[in-house]
Specification:
Length: about 475
C-alpha cells in the first residue's frame, strides 16, 4: 500500500503503470490523497483535479478499479504535512491495479480462454494505422488477443503478424469455421464486405465491419438479415459517433440549448493522401463510389444522427461516368431547415462544420474530436475550447477528465463492441444505424447531376455532359 499526495500524481503515473503491467504478483492497492486547504482555493481545485484525472487515466484500463475510502487524515499524513493537520482536509481513493493476467474478459462461449479472440480480415492502411495500435493496446492489458489474420497479400500479412505473437495467418477465409473466435474485424475492400461478414456470421462470430457497411443497400440488407438469422452482432465502424464534440452537438440539438437549428454547412476533404496500397479506391468495381461513399459515409452518418433524414435533396458531382472527386449536396428539412455539404478529394476545403441555431453558432473542425467553437447570437466573441467528460461529476470523487481524442475514440469503439459481445447486448453503432447513411448516399447517386465547372471550355462542357449522361453509378 502506498500513499501518494495529489501533487505528485503526474510523476507517479508512469512508475505505477510499469509496476502494474510488469508485476507477477497482483494485485497492488494504492491509496491516493487529494488535499484541500481552506486559505488556498486554487490549490483545493488543483488537488482534486489531479486525483480525478489520474483515476480517469487508470480507468481506461479494465484491469483497474477504484473506490473512495473513508480514512482519518492522521492515519496517512506524511511528514511533510504534519504541520498542517488542522487546516488540511483529505479525500482518499483506493486504486486496485491488477497485473496483466488478472481481471480477464471472458469470451461469451464460456471457454477457458480469458480474452476476446479476434480475427482481422484485411491488412490495408486502416488496419495498419488504426486497428494495429488499438489491438496491441487491448492485448497488452489482457482484454483481447489477435488470433487470426487474412489478406491475399502474403508479404503484408507476414509484416502485420510480426507485431502480434499470437496471430496465425491463413490463406483464405475458411478458417472462420474452424478457429474459435469471438469477433471478426472486416477491413477488406468494400466489395468484399458482404461475403466476409456473412461468412463470419454464419460461423457464429460477431462482426465489426469497417465503413461503409457495404457497396450498396441491397448487400447491407443481406448482411443485416444474416446477423438476425444467426443471432450475432453486426456493427459498423462509424467511430465519429464516439467523438465528444459529436455527442455534445447532438445534446445541444436535442435539448435545444441554443434554440432550434436553422441551417448547417459542412466542408470536408482535401488532396487525396490516404496511404492506399492498391488502386481499389479508384476502381468502380472495388470502391463502389468516390468521395461521397468514402468520406461522405462518415459525414452523412452525422447528418442523419444529428438532423434526421432530409425531406428533399439535390446532388451534383464531377463523376462523368467514373468516380466522383468532388460533390455537393443541398438538403431540406421540415420547419425550413436547410443544409449544404461539400466534399472533395482534390482541393483543400475549410474542413469545418457550422451549425446555425436561433441563439448562436456551433463550429466543429475536422480531426478535432474533443474541441468546439461557440458564438452566441449578437456577441462579438467566439469561445474556443476542449470538452471534458463530467459524466462522473456526481460521484463521491467528482471525476472530470479530458474527452476522448481520435485514437482513444478508435479504441473506445473496439471496447464497446467487445463489451457487447460479452454481454450479448446491442453495440453503440449496429448495422441498422450504419445503413441509414448508405441509403442517403444511394439516393444521391440516383439523383446525381453534373456539377458546375466553369473552368471547362464549351467543348469540354459538352463532352462532360455526354459522359455524365451515360455514366451513372
Amino acid at each position: 500500500m502506498v500513499v501518494t499526495p495529489a501533487s505528485k500524481l503526474y510523476g507517479t503515473i508512469p512508475n505505477l503503470l510499469h509496476l502494474a503491467l510488469k508485476s507477477s504478483n497482483p494485485p497492488y492497492t494504492f491509496i491516493f490523497s487529494g488535499f484541500t486547504d481552506s486559505p488556498t482555493k486554487n490549490k483545493r481545485a488543483w488537488g482534486a483535479r489531479n486525483v480525478s484525472t489520474f483515476l480517469k487515466q487508470i480507468l481506461q484500463y479494465p484491469t483497474a478499479s477504484f473506490a473512495p475510502v473513508d480514512f482519518r487524515p492522521k492515519e496517512f499524513i506524511g511528514a511533510w504535512q504534519k504541520n498542517f493537520v488542522d487546516s488540511i482536509e483529505h479525500t482518499y481513493a483506493q486504486i486496485v491495479i491488477h497485473s496483466m493476467k488478472s481481471n480477464p474478459i471472458s469470451p461469451p462461449t464460456g471457454d477457458s480462454n480469458p480474452r476476446c479472440r479476434i480475427a482481422l480480415l484485411g491488412c490495408g492502411a486502416v488496419s495498419e494505422l488504426y486497428h494495429a495500435p488499438a489491438l496491441q493496446h487491448l492485448e497488452a492489458e489482457g482484454t483481447a488477443v489477435l488470433a487470426a489474420v487474412f489478406d491475399p497479400d502474403a508479404a503484408r500479412v507476414a509484416k502485420f503478424c510480426a507485431q502480434f505473437p499470437n496471430a496465425v495467418s491463413y490463406p483464405d477465409e475458411s478458417f472462420l469455421k474452424k478457429v474459435p473466435l469471438d469477433l471478426v474485424i472486416v477491413a477488406s475492400p468494400v466489395s468484399s464486405h458482404e461475403a466476409h461478414a456473412i461468412r463470419a456470421l454464419e460461423a457464429g462470430i460477431a462482426v465489426l465491419c469497417e465503413k461503409p457497411l457495404a457497396a450498396n443497400t441491397e448487400a447491407g440488407d443481406r448482411m443485416i438479415a444474416a446477423a438476425l438469422k444467426h443471432q450475432r452482432i453486426l456493427a459498423v465502424g462509424l467511430l465519429r459517433r464516439f467523438y465528444a464534440n459529436v455527442q455534445f452537438t447532438r445534446q445541444i440539438i436535442q435539448n435545444k440549448t441554443l434554440g432550434s437549428v436553422t441551417s448547417f454547412t459542412i466542408h470536408e476533404g482535401g488532396p487525396f493522401n490516404w496511404p492506399a496500397r492498391s488502386d481499389s479506391f479508384f476502381r468502380k468495381s472495388t470502391a463502389g463510389g468516390g468521395v461521397l461513399l468514402d468520406i461522405g459515409v462518415h459525414v452523412l452518418d452525422l447528418v442523419v444522427h444529428w438532423f434526421g433524414e432530409p425531406q428533399k435533396l439535390t446532388y451534383a458531382d464531377d463523376a462523368m461516368g467514373g468516380l466522383e472527386t468532388n460533390c455537393q449536396l443541398e438538403l431540406s428539412y421540415s420547419a425550413g431547415v436547410k443544409g449544404t455539404v461539400h466534399l472533395s478529394r482534390d482541393w483543400k476545403t475549410s474542413n469545418l462544420y457550422v451549425i446555425e441555431f436561433e441563439r448562436g453558432t456551433l463550429k466543429l473542425r475536422v480531426g478535432d474530436a474533443e474541441k468546439v467553437e461557440l458564438q452566441l447570437k449578437n456577441s462579438s466573441f467566439l469561445l474556443k475550447g476542449s470538452l471534458e467528460d463530467c459524466a462522473d461529476l456526481d460521484s463521491p470523487l467528482g471525476t472530470v477528465s479530458p474527452a476522448l481524442t481520435f485514437p482513444q475514440a478508435f479504441l473506445a469503439q473496439l471496447r464497446d463492441l467487445i463489451s457487447a459481445v460479452r454481454r450479448a447486448s446491442r453495440p453503440t453503432i449496429p448495422a441498422e444505424e450504419g445503413i441509414r447513411s448508405l441509403r442517403l448516399i444511394e439516393q444521391c447517386y440516383q439523383n446525381r447531376t453534373l456539377m458546375e465547372m466553369p473552368w471547362l471550355t464549351p467543348e469540354e462542357r459538352k463532352s462532360a455532359r455526354l459522359l455524365a449522361a451515360g455514366g451513372g453509378r
